[in-house]
From TrEMBL:
GO terms for biological process: phosphoenolpyruvate-dependent sugar phosphotransferase system. This is Phosphoenolpyruvate-protein phosphotransferase. GO terms for cellular component: cytoplasm. Its EC number is 2.7.3.9. Residues 1-28 are annotated as: Disordered. It is found in: Cytoplasm. It comes from Terrabacter aerolatus. Residues 159-230 form the PEP-utilising enzyme mobile domain.
Length: 568
């Protein structure tokens, strides 16, 4: 926004949330509009034919606007928006609305009732269909808004660089944001490891979650946010904005002085790697100063796919991901479908507790055809490109599972097999589990969820999910000990790898690679360069000796060098 617009009438007010994507941002607030409901006093229609034409036009305008948005976003986002547009074009929805009109309901109520009839059917079908109910209701709410002539729910159109504020954003909503215009994201709910936070960091958009009262900030109010500290100032004065910008510039300058592979101050190598979700991320990360990819979440590519992708289709995507990393490592995770990341073509039906159900490798065991097709495509793409491709399985719990996976990987001609260590059972028995494979990668997001029995999707549980919880650090430490016993490398690809202070703890516990959103690499590189392995080990002991998560963080902050903590 222009500097002349920035002298607000209101007093500046600073609040704190959780910073989940680094960087600072300043801009006017765009509030994501809540769903639109039909008015309670809506009149019945007198001309049924005209009303049906309006309803049809409303659904069509929703489809057209979704398709129009799809032209302005990347591949993954396009798929999501096009799939939602298809729901809006479903003839059955218009037919169901026609029945409601014939029964004497008004236009908006007819749309809502038709959508709810469909939603009930989707919910009864369970699995993938049940997961699409949110998209269906979104289409319904947009059609209601269109027929009432009021602004659509969701992100309203805006043309100047702005900060998006919402109660929470669905992963699909985050993925479809226009990167050029969204300078920051603030949510009232959400958590450190919710997929919205992960996507924001991957997209390089500074973000703060868990900001109390965020949805009450008036649209257009200027805000300044710091995605490192979680600090948000509403209606800041220009002095504060300038100070924040200067701090960001100093930080960027300090971080820019260092480059190259990750090393501790005494020269121990700790590979700095990127977490990516598709070809576009790979191209962006490939151009950056990092050593490869430590986690390619392949399921992100297929979130909206209706049918299982063929070997050829997959090969093309994997080629695109590997090409920017010639001579560098790319760790590919096989489909981690299920729970919060359902895939239509890999659905085993409804479950009471999907996070504890047949997800990740458990799903692959029931659908080995999907796993084999993926491994075949990966092997072809790996042969055709010069990347050092390694494949790992999600949600491994036992040594038998690890052995089963490794055999299949090798049968498909891929040289290196690994497993995610994200189930506490696998962490406790890491010596047996990792003995079956070539490497391990700690998924601290799920490891925290399962160690603390706290749903990672629930922002209200973020204190329990805090990766500084000493119990989680203990489990990570035990997994590293197990890896050392069988002489296998172990890294971290959960969000904690991108926290510069936690990175020191993790290195002290024995990890040899850290994989994170590319925007977090420079500060982690700096943190490592300022501390020796022995210092990291002492820092890890201090963290594990703490009684609480807050004490662990405080102890590490005090023990770390001020050249680092002054920048945080
Ligand atoms: C994790 O669980 O830490 C992880 C890296 O995988 P995801 O966040 O995709 O579950
Ligand atoms: Mg996981």
């Amino acid at each position: 926004m222009a500097e002349s617009d920035t002298q607000p009438d209101t007093q500046p007010e600073t609040r704190h949330g959780i910073g989940v994507s680094p960087g600072t941002a300043y801009g006017p607030v765009v509030q994501v509009a809540p769903p639109v409901r039909p008015p309670a006093d809506e009149k019945a229609v007198d001309d049924e034919e005209a009303a049906l034409a309006d309803v049809r036009a409303a659904f069509e305008s929703v489809a057209v606007s979704l398709e129009e948005r799809a032209t302005r976003v990347d591949d993954t986002a396009q798929q999501i928006l096009k799939a939602t547009a298809l729901i809006a074009r479903d003839k059955g929805l218009v037919k169901a609305a026609a029945k409601e009109l014939a029964a004497g309901h008004g236009r908006a109520h007819s749309i809502e009732n038709a959508v709810e009839t469909y939603a009930a059917q989707f919910e009864a079908l369970g699995g993938y269909f049940a997961e699409r109910v949110a998209d269906l209701r979104d289409v319904g709410s947009r059609a209601v808004a269109a027929v009432l002539g009021v602004p659509a729910p969701g992100v309203p159109p805006f043309s100047e660089p702005s900060v998006i504020v919402a109660e929470d954003l669905a992963p699909a909503e985050t993925a479809t944001l226009d990167r050029r215009l969204v300078v920051g994201i603030i949510t009232e709910a959400g958590g450190r490891t919710s997929h919205t936070a992960i996507l924001a960091a991957q997209m390089g958009i500074p973000a703060v979650v868990q900001l109390a009262g965020a949805t009450e900030i008036a649209p257009g109010t200027p805000v300044a946010l710091d995605g490192d500290t979680g600090e948000v100032t509403i209606a800041p004065d220009m002095e504060l904005v300038t100070a924040q910008r200067e701090r960001a510039a100093r930080r960027a300058e300090a971080l820019g002085r260092l480059s190259g592979p990750g090393r501790t101050s005494d020269g121990a190598e700790v590979a700095l790697l990127a977490n990516i979700g598709g070809v576009e991320d790979a191209v962006a990360a490939g151009a950056q100063d990092l050593e490869g990819v430590g986690l390619f979440r392949t399921e992100f590519v297929y979130l909206s796919a209706a049918k299982a992708p063929t070997v050829e289709e997959q090969t093309e995507i994997y080629r695109g991901v590997f090409a920017p990393f010639e001579g560098r490592r790319v760790v590919v995770r096989t489909l981690d479908a299920g729970a919060d990341k359902p895939l239509k073509f890999a659905d085993l039906g409804p479950e009471e507790n999907p996070a504890l159900g047949r997800r990740g490798l458990r799903l692959s065991a029931e659908r080995p055809d999907l796993l084999d097709a993926q491994l075949e495509a990966l092997a072809i793409a790996a042969r055709e490109t010069g990347a050092d491709v390694r494949v790992m399985a999600p949600m491994v719990a036992t040594a038998e599972e690890a052995a089963w996976f490794a055999r299949r990987v090798r049968e498909n001609g891929l040289p290196k097999a690994g497993v995610m260590i994200e189930v506490p059972g696998a962490a406790l028995r890491a010596h047996h589990v990792l003995g079956e494979v070539d490497f391990g990668s700690l998924g601290t997001n799920d490891l925290a969820q399962y160690t603390m029995a706290a749903d990672r999707m629930q922002g209200a549980l973020s204190d329990l999910l805090d990766p500084w919880q000493p119990a989680v650090l203990d489990v990570v430490g035990l997994a590293c000990d197990g890896a050392a016993r069988v002489n296998r490398p172990i890294g971290v690809c959960g969000e904690s790898a991108g926290d510069p202070l936690l990175a020191l703890v993790l290195v002290g516990l024995g990890v040899s690679s850290l994989s994170m959103a590319p925007s977090k690499v420079p500060v982690v590189r700096l943190a490592l360069s300022l501390h020796s392995v022995a210092e990291c080990q002492a820092i890890a002991v201090a963290a594990r000796s703490a009684r609480t998560a807050v004490d662990a963080l405080t102890a590490v902050r005090e023990a770390a060098r001020t050249e680092l903590t002054d920048l945080l």
